[in-house]
Amino acid sequence: MRIEEHPVLNFERGEKVSFFFNGQEVEAYPTETIAAALHALGVRKLGESPELHRPRGLFCAIGNCSSCFMTVDDEPNMRVCVIKVKPGMRVEEQHGKGVICL
Amino acid sequence: MNQVEIMVIGGGPAGLCAALAASSLGAKVLIAERDDIAGGQLVKQTHKFFGSEKQYAGDRGIQIGQMLLDNAQADPNIEIWTDSTVLGIYEDGIVTVEHEGAHAKIKPERIIIATGAAEKFLSFPGNDLPGIYGAGAVQTLMNVAGVKPAQSVLMVGAGNIGLIVSYQLKQAGVEVSAVIEGLPTIGGYLVHASKIQRAGIPVLTRHTILEAYGDGKVEGAVIAEINEKWQPIPGTEQKIPCDAICLAVGLSPLTELAWQAGCEMAYIRELSGHVPIVDDYLETTRPGIYCAGDVSGIEEASSAMVEGRLAGISAAASLGFGKEQVEELQKAAMSELDELRAGPMGAHIRLGLEKVAAKGGSKICS
Ligand SMILES: Cc1cc2nc3c(=O)[nH]c(=O)nc-3n(C[C@H](O)[C@H](O)[C@H](O)COP(=O)(O)OP(=O)(O)OC[C@H]3O[C@@H](n4cnc5c(N)ncnc54)[C@H](O)[C@@H]3O)c2cc1C
Ligand code: FES
After folding, report:
1. Which residues of chain B are in CATH 3.50.50.60 domains?
2. Which positions in chain B have a beta carbon within 8 angstroms of at least one beta carbon in chain A?
3. For an interface test with A, which of B120, B140, B168 has the most A Cβ atoms less than 10 Å from its Cβ?
4. Contact B216/A58, CB-based, under 8 Å?
5. How many CB atoms lie within 10 A of CB B221?
6. CB–CB of B132 and A57 under 8 A?
7. Is B152 helix (H, G, I), strand (E, B) or coil?
8. ipTM of this complex prediction, to 2 decimal places
């Protein structure tokens, strides 16, 4: 859920855009990171641990801890807490360690 | 390869003040900041700051950050790269940066490391469930993105950060079920504690978290009272339903770059972890590399700003800028640091700095 009223802060979000989460079209603001946008949509689980398959969500939200790895436009291991939403972007839960195509 | 006079790594209060001070003596500075805006921790601090007026106490953290940033942006000697993570500092003094999707190499004459801190973690069963957040993450979600981190939060830690973030959650319309703290007393300032208590949030001292539970995400926590040996007292367990658990259990200096650069390091508990050994002018044991702010010991924005200034002056002076003003400027900064660290709240910092001095550094004022 987004904060609509705040005693100190004012949020300027601009126009909504759409992107794809696990193949489904969803909406968010381009000023938001992917992690914040998914959170606003109620999505907490961003992926799973590569070996024990335990659910993973964000922890630090500043690109420090690597807890939020997802696959973005086919590229695995992206820290979605520091990547902004772009129209048409494809964001997927990552399973396993991910393969980097060079 | 880019040639730079002074490179500042990290654009928080320490980094911005370092750049402004060095530039005021005539040096050219490049700031590399990992985030998409500079300001560091200050961009999330909606509360009014403590300290003395010299360090803008009474203003909100976000206002202080904006003011420093405006000054730096208006300064023709300062260039700011955002979205730019510094990856390494090599033996030959070359700094590598991920900048605009490419790998940039820079050859600075002096380096100031001002990378700040990272949050500490706690071990308990279920601590990897989605919904276990660092206090900084909660602040980023609600104060930067404007997204509610949860409906109901259990806060772990009643130091200043735990108290302030609890209050900020309340302001954002999120319920805080309780603040728990292992120590017998609240660690944060009384003003922050009273605000929390007035808001009707219970602060449970001598309590710890035993586990987080939930199916695929946090649905609650089990907490218990602890004895003097920090052991849970049987029979005192209680379930706290919540959809997020916020850990505010301290920060540790973000020192990877100092380690990699080969700076001599020491574990100093009072400064919250391994810190680089620095001299009076904040130069590390690797000549030409300085450290300022939380990276050399967790303190506050006020001291981070003054340390930044001292490192900026000293780095510029070592390149021949400033000449006769330098000594006076350095002395002024050192005595401001002294003032900030005076009194009972600064006692552990003073002890920590004495330990640094004993290890051969002398980041000790007066
Ligand atoms: C909830 C809370 C409340 C606080 N309240 C107060 C208060 O009332 N009064 C007070 O004085 N202080 C307060 N503080 C403390 C204060 O915010 C910090 O002490 C201060 O921000 C430290 O400044 P810094 O510049 O050292 O680090 P930071 O502000 O953490 O800045 C470090 C910067 O470096 C960047 N960085 C890190 N690694 C890299 C890299 N490899 N490459 C490029 N950039 C990098 C980071 O993105 C960040 O922007 C509070 C802190 C918190 C969390
Ligand atoms: S949540 Fe820590 S790196 Fe993204």
Report:
1. 2-118+251-358, 121-247
2. 34-36, 46, 60, 85, 118-119, 128-134, 136-137, 140-143, 145-149, 171-173, 216-217, 254
3. B140
4. no
5. 26
6. yes
7. strand
8. 0.93
Task: Give the closest of A1, A40, A44 to B130, CB-based.
Answer: A44
Residue holding tokens 């033996």? Answer: B91
Contact A80, A70 (CB under 8 A): yes
Question: How far is B15 from B179, CA to CA, in rounded Å?
Answer: 33
For domain B2-118+251-358, give the CATH superfamily.
FAD/NAD(P)-binding domain (3.50.50.60)
d(CA A82, CA B37): 11
Phi, psi of A15 (to 5 degrees): -90, 145
> A48: domain range?
17-91
Q: What is the pLDDT of residues A1-24, one digit of tens each?
A: 888 888 888 888 889 999 999 999
Q: Among positive and negative, which fits the CA dihedral B318, B321, B323, B329? A: negative
β B29-32/B78-81 pair status: parallel
Ligand nearest to the CA of A39: 2
pTM for this model (two decimals): 0.92
Integer Rg of chain A from CA: 14
For residue A33, give the DSSP letter. Answer: B
Q: Locate B164 and state its tokens.
A: 């302030």
